[in-house]
Amino acid sequence: xxxxxxxxxxxxxxxxxxxxxxxxxxxxxxxxxxxxxxxxxxxxxxxxxxxxxxxxxxxxxxxxxxxxxxxxxxxxxxxxxxxxxxxxxxxxxxxxxxxxxxxxxxxxxxxxxxxxxxxxxxxxxxxxxxxxxxxxxxxxxxxxxxxxxxxxxxxxxxxxxx
Length: 162
Hints:
Mean pLDDT: 97
Strand content: 5-15%
Oligomer: single chain
């Protein structure tokens, strides 16, 4: 089953409709507004803008499971991201990425190994998963990996549609 077949709500209500990403490459990132890594929003937006015309999107997934660093409502999250970082990439509803209430999207993603072979629970905010055009997770990057890191950019470019 493709990741793009999972159901998840949009931050602004309704469905995020992951099927619209079929044929595109997506970087799925669990995000938070009050984290030391929150400035990564700026780099994620740059990636989104740089590669959007080539079949790429960032998908932000708010999560409040790490020290309560995403406490806001959907409206507050949207306003913060737009006003502070100029975020234009799509955002989903706030979900759990670990534990018994883990969203099915993350159930599919967490078995993807990172460069060191780690699989399993999300370690912190801003963990990144690259999903190829057919909806298969193909790479995982630690929360500390900056959006402009050479290994992340190379992975995106490798998987972009021709």
